[in-house]
Sequence to fold (561 residues):
Amino acid sequence: MKRQPIGVDDFKDLIDNDLYFIDKTLFIKEIIDDSSKVILIARPRRFGKTLNMSMLKYYFEITKEDMSYLYKNYKIWQQGDKYLKEYNKYPIINLTFKGIKTSSWDTNLDIIKINIKNEFQRHSYLLDSDKLILEQRNDLKQIASGKGTISEFIKSIELLSKALHIYHGEKPIILLDEYDTLLNEAYIHGYWKDAIDFMKPFMNESFKNNIYLHKAIITGIFRVAKESIFSDMNNLNVYTLMSDEYTQYFGFTQEEVGQILAYCNIEEDITKVAQWYNGYIFGKKKQCVIYNPWSIVMYAKKGYFEPYWVNTSGNEIIKKLATEGEKSIQLKIQNIIQGGTIGQVHIEENIIYSEIMKSENSIWSFMLMSGYLKSIKTELEEDGVYCTLKAPNKEVHYFFRNMLRSWFTETIKDSSPDELLKALLTGDIRTFYKLFANTVERTVSYFDVGNDKSESFYHAFVLGMLVHIDKDYEVRSNRESGYGRYDVLIIPKDKSKKGIIIEFKKVDKYENETIDMALEAALKQIEDKKYETELISMGIEDIIKLGIAFKGKEVKMDTVK
Fold:
C-alpha cells in the first residue's frame, strides 16, 4: 500500500517515492487552455497550491532529463497532441515566497533576495553562454552572487526572462507560489509600507512590463487589492474560491475522498468524515463541494478525527479580528461558535488589508477566502456576490473555540480561569471583582491611549467565558428578554444553580459621565428592562444581576440588591 504524501509538496518527490496521489494532472490542461497571460489562483493554505505548481514546473520545463515518466500514468498524457506538444517546451522561472514569515522586514527582504539568487544559480549555464553578450552575463552574475541593489532585484525576473528567451528561443513561464505570505506578515508586524514599496514594482516588472513572458501562474490566499500591487496589470486574470474555474484542482472532491478511504481500508461513514473536513464550497454558478486535503491526508494516515489543518498555522490575523474587533463582529463570531450563520454578506473578492478591521464585509470576506467560513447560500446581484456564511466543519468550529479558550487563558494570567469563573458562577462577586479588575488593568493597559479597545476586550472576555463553561452553562449575548436586550445571560443547565445577568456600561465621556454613574445606569437597566424574565421562564430562581462599568482600564461592578 502506498504511503500518504504528508508534508510532500514536490511532484517529482511524490512520484519517485511512490506515494499516494489523486490525479490532478488535468490542471495542466486547464492552464494550457487558459488564454490569460498572467493567472492568479487564490486558495486557502495547505490546499495543494505548491504541489500543483511543482506539477506545472516538471511538465513544462526544458530539461536534459526526461521527466515524462512522471505523467505517463496520469490523465494529462491521454489528452492528445495539443497538450503533449507543450511538454518539456519552456524555460521555467520558479519562485516561492512561502517561507517568508519573520517579523522583520530586513530579514524577509534578505530571504527574497536569496530565493531570487538561488533561481539565478539554478540557471547558471547562462552565466558563461556565448549566446549572451558580456554585459548581460555580468548583470546575471551580479544577482546570482546576491550582490545586486534593491532596484536590480526588483528588475531581476525580467532580466532572467530575457536571458532565458535568448538562450532557449522560447519565452519562459514564471511560477510564483504564495506571493501574499510576505504581505500577511507585513500586516501583522507593521512593515506594510516597506513590503508594498518592494512588491508593487517587483510584480509590475516581472509580470506587466516583461515582454519576454510566455505565461505566469501566481498562487496565494487572496487577491490583494487597492494597495497597488496589481493596479497596473491589465493582463491579469484572478480565480478566487468564488470563481467557477479550477474548482476541483485544489482540495479533494467527495468522489476523491471516497477513493482515498477505500484505498486505505477505512470503513468510517463518509458522512462523519464530511462533518469534520468537508464544507468548502468553491465557485458561484457551478459550485463544487471540497474537502480539506491536508486534513484528509492526515486522517487517512492516522485513522482518527482531529483538527489537523487548523493546528498548522498561527492564525494571528483571525485571532486579532476576534479579540479586537467591534462588538457586532464579536457577537457574530459567538454566533458562529454556537453553530449559527452570518448573512447576507457582500463578498469582497479583493482583500484590502488596510481596511480589514474597518469593514465587516472585509472581515467576513477575509475569513471566507482563507477557509475559516463557507457559503451555504450564494446570490448573484447587480452589485456583487452575497453569501450566507457559517463555519465549514467541526475542525474549523474547534479552531474558533480553541483560539478563544487560549486567548482567555493567556489573558487571565495571574489567576486561573477556573478560579475567576468559579467566583462568578457561585456568586462570590467580591473575589470575581478583584480577579477581573486585575485582569482588565493589566490587559487594557497595553492599548494605545488614542485607540481605546477596552470595549472589545469585554466582549472578547465574554467569548472566552462562553467556551470555558459551555458544558454546564449556556451563554447568550445581546438577545431580547423582558423589555430590552441584555448584554450577557449565563444559563445553568442544572436549574438549581445560579443564573447570571451581566450588563456592561462604558463611561460616556461626552456626557461627563462618571464610572459610578455608569454603574448605576447598568444596574437600573437590568431592573427596568426585567432581564430576569427569560431565566424565570426556564424555572431558574436563584439569579445574580451584575452591572459592570468601565472607563479604559478602570472598572467597577455591583449587583442589584
Summary: The radius of gyration is 28 Å.
